[in-house]
## 1
Amino acid sequence: MGSTRPLGAPRQRRSLIGTLARTVLAGGLALAVVFVGLPWLVGQQLEARLHDSLEQGAHNAGLRLADWRLKRGLRASDVEARLVADTCISACTAARFSGRLVHGPLWAGRTGVDLGLARLTGRLSREAGHNGPALPGLPALRVAATADLLGTGRVTISAPAFETAIIRASDTAIEARTPRLAGAASHADLAFSDFGRRLGVWRVEMPRLVRAGATAGQIGVRGLTARGDIQAQTLSMHLQRVVADDGQGRATRIRDLAASLAPADAGRQRLAVDADRILLPDNQNAALTLEAVGNRAVFVAGPRIAAGWRARGGLAGGALNQSGFYDETVAEALAAADLEAQMSLVAGDERLSARLILAAPPDLGGPTNAVDVLSALDLQARAGLSQHWLRRLAARARPPAPIDDTERVIDRMIEQLVARALIVRDGPARYASRARFQDGRLIINGRPRPEWRSIAQQLQAAAPGL
């Protein structure tokens, strides 16, 4: 027995090895649980946050989240969302997003393993509504977004170059004669924090966008760059070139147009537009300045009314004769709108100036027609222009006449406008006009115009046939 090895020595080694094996196995199982379970937990939290972020972003853009579907998986989820204008009634033009949300904290990236909260990729496509035009050649936008573990990230949207026909439901013309829309590859991005609930700095770059008419004329934009900060409520935009051509030898060309939007006093915002390199159709060089100060309601009223107009079929669909258009769209868009705007266009000794003040009540009282809407507004307007430009406008509006009688016809038109006090002389070779809507009464240059109601009603009734 004295030569026997100490009892238990091999067992101690085997026990130590077993302990290490069990520790490694337990650690591996723990890592597996974390690796599998953590993405599932992250996916649970992301579902509500992504929905809230999309809903908030849609609201800021005047849209509404009409449909939302998320099919959650273990490490990724499939997302479907449909956005429409917030004034949409039914069968409206929509933007549909289809994508995949990869849950963090780890996923395979282009160069290895990436660390973060989530990665979203997908496509944003346009769906034509019942009254909206079809754009068969418009490609889907590519969307990509990532968020780090602190909930900070960036969304990028890219669009390839495209060219498409603009086909309306009522069109019967062949595709070669339909209007066309073409654009160069474009890019946009948006920074966010707080898991997408706090939107920040954004940027858009669009090198070229052209809309050509079915037979003649076009409007084109080149070199558009825009940037802004949603939290600071600021925006700046620059256009290298804008061309509006009627296809009949008359074109207006603008170079280096700049615009900005920034906070003003009393919670309002100030919009400023400046373009000092404008070439008018008669080859006159001109400069344009515009400044508008108003609340948010007035700056988003235009897009909201336009969306409601399209949703109800526009002019051909009889939108002007639908009471819901005024009550549900126009009244809601203009509620509490507040605006002061002025502009001037100067070309040498010629000048056009205008000023507008608008105040709308918080409740327009359920209007059912254009007369009801105008009666609820407090509106002041003033316009002045040189005699030369007034004659040019009269020449375009004059009825057909022999060339020899053109000047005499224009003279008579201006004399009639002066006699009816629709315009007044405002100094040498200059005319002006002042109008005021208040308490349902229209006053032009100091004279009440009670006939405005019947004129508005007649125009509204005749609009679908125009």
## 2
Amino acid sequence: MLHRSLKEDQRNGTTENDRLTLASRVRHLDVQPEYSRIDSEGEIQVSSPEELTQIADILRWATHIEILTIAWKPYVYIPTSWLEALQSTTSSIRKLYCDGLGLPDAEWRTLIAKWDRLRTVLVTHTSAEAQISPVDLLQVPDITFFNLPPRWHGDIPKDAANPGLKQVYLVISDDSNVEKGYREQFLSVQGRYLKTVYIAAEHSHAAINADTLPCMQQLAEHCPHLTNLIFIGPNMWTLPFECPLPPSITHLGLYSSKGQARDALWSHLFYSLCEMTGTDGQPLHLQVVRLLNPHLGTDLRMRLSRTKGELVYRYLAKIKYRLEDHDGWPIEFGPSVSGEPTGS
């Protein structure tokens, strides 16, 4: 539909400005090709040549895109026609999200140098060779957030820190030994400016705390102004809430895509919050723990309303931190809830 409208607009225009009037109004472009068709032999078929051409046309015509989202799985490299179209766009892109679609780092470098208004970058589910290097992103003047790839080509210069970059997204995976060295290099340069770090867990509970501890120690060493930490995982069991935190953390967010948990896991969470310490035994300044999935707060409140002081919730009353739902309202043991949302 969008391609048809923009194409008609191209035909009807009498001047260059006329032709681009409609296309220039496109600010947010969300590209999700039909990548999951199955042929008669059971093989996954990517988009048709016609669809790829249409998307390339839209990328070329919509010269004032500010938010670009491209989601394409299974992972493939970006089509040549799209790359050529992106290279011809203006520098208006401010937010970039690519899921399952990659570029060689040299091609990314060319685009990043052109998109000098970028503020937010998130590239996920792609190969290490198709990630955007932090060496390039740190040079973008207005960058405020990006995800750190597990590895990259080249070293980050010691003087490459960007004071505007306050947030970063890290992934803890089974390849943690490789990640640790690259993460150390990045944090030693940029860490002093970071205030918020997101940590995504991509493996089982058995390994997550052991693999997360080195990351917490690095954050404690290099990020003196870090106050907000958000753990992200497919369910509560994969979140490393048993791990000691950097002592500067005041707000801890817990997000799992699964919006409920068993009583035993809630009890384990409360116990861990009671016993939580800072890295290397340092005093912890934690004030707030927030459940970021709205359904988790609902699930917990429902379970609390049904209990009459069962043993599994004995630790909740001992928590020294404020436990909140996603809106900032306190979650307390008992039928009543007091207080106001913190708004943090």
## 3
Amino acid sequence: MLLSARRCGAVLTALLAVGIGAGATVAMAAKIPSPPVNRDFHDEATGLAFTAPSLLVVGKRRGHHGHDFVIDVDSQKIPRAGTSKNLCGVGLKTQPDEVQALDQASLIAPEMIDRQMQSMRSSLGLLGHIDFVEPVAFGGGLRGVAALTTPRFGRGHAHVRQYVAIAETPAYRISLSCATTATAIDRALPLFEALVGTLRIEPVR
């Protein structure tokens, strides 16, 4: 029960990492500045690593309430939704002691993934229409859960699509949250899924 409750909070925190959440004002797609051409990220202290697919670039690292840190991911081709300052945010959060006591096999077991999907449906169902919730392969053999939603709140909310994916490791929770427009989601979704497929925790030397 405790792990399920933490997952509910994790879903909401992940959504806020990209600047869209319950009650957020949703406006037209924000103007996107030219980002640096950088598609690889690796944090030596935690082992978090990923590669952004073509059309996406890695932005700055920043602090965020509810995460150890968040890495911005942006694009000049895929529009952001509303007032978001970036297209996506990759978040990392240190696990509590009771999760650190588990092994990786337990955290990616089918029954655990099922519970995670139920938790995500419950959390996201409060905020909007759920297009799908499904298991997803992260990098490094990790398994997690991803969802696509349409927010229920905010001006122009019907024209926004939010993608969130979460995977658990004994040491860290990895999350990806993205927000784009309804007209861009068909182009954006394969990019979000490709990014998830590279998110991993590498051994720390």
## 4
Amino acid sequence: MSVSTEFLTIQEEICKLLCVKSFRKSKLFDGLKLAKGFTSQSWVQFYHDFLYIIGQGIRSSLLIDYPVPEWEDLINFIEILKKSTILNNNNNAEKFKFEIISIHLDDFLYFLSNKTVLLERIQIDLSNNFENYLFIDVSQKLNQPKYCETQDYHKNQLKLILEYLAEKLKSGSKEILLDKDLEVILKGNRIYLPILSGWFCEYPIIYCNSSRYTQCSQCPSGDNCNDLDTDWNENSLSSIELQRYSVRQCNISTPYQSLQLPKLLLSFTYPVFLETSHKDILDSILNKFQKSLLNRFNQCSNESQFKLTNQLEFNIEKLSNDISNIRL
């Protein structure tokens, strides 16, 4: 069998796995039971993310915010996927070679990460002191969110966590329960989880929360932080104008055009007032974000044998100001 014919067979199998109606007919499921916890739709989303978004390194990490198996079952199933003969036969192993890491922040925050790309991001952010991020305080006590006056406080917390994470990745860890180690890493201090999840999601605008205090750096630590969980469950985003910045895949290539694949690659929000009060900083950060994502996308698209699209679309749209539940 020629390489081109063999790769066509691989494409056909991938098409089956990305189709709600046919994925169970794929060779991957010969004698393999789909792990309990997936729905047909969430399986297609998961395999798309596993193989393409994370596997090809378009994003460094991806939040699994759709139905999947419980943590331990998911980890075991991912190991089976990594060893799939569809991706690891002799002629195609290098084409689909990637190392996926599972990261647990809490019971509702699971991430899949591409080890190589994640380490590259960590190195860049540590070397430039997180200059490509803007922290916005969304404490409920505020009439509206504001530019955080203690940006360095959050950067120092992220620095400690990412230095620890880099060591875990370099040591060969495949599954990282980061939530178990945060208190030790931060020496008894707490971190507002949307800061950390926002970094993993690659949001250039990250929401922080000063609780009932004047500044985020004044939030208590140790046994004195009982009120933080209550305060941190609330924010001041629900009654203000927000912009949503989204990145979508477009011009899906054959043979994947007929499949109902996820188009949204990434989205985040930011308060409209930043466009006037901090316009230069905002424009710079968004431009750097777009350039970084495009560079990674183009590199992956040029090198990858598995290619869904050759084009990304960047959009900014205003959200309604009566949204009651803003995802951070």
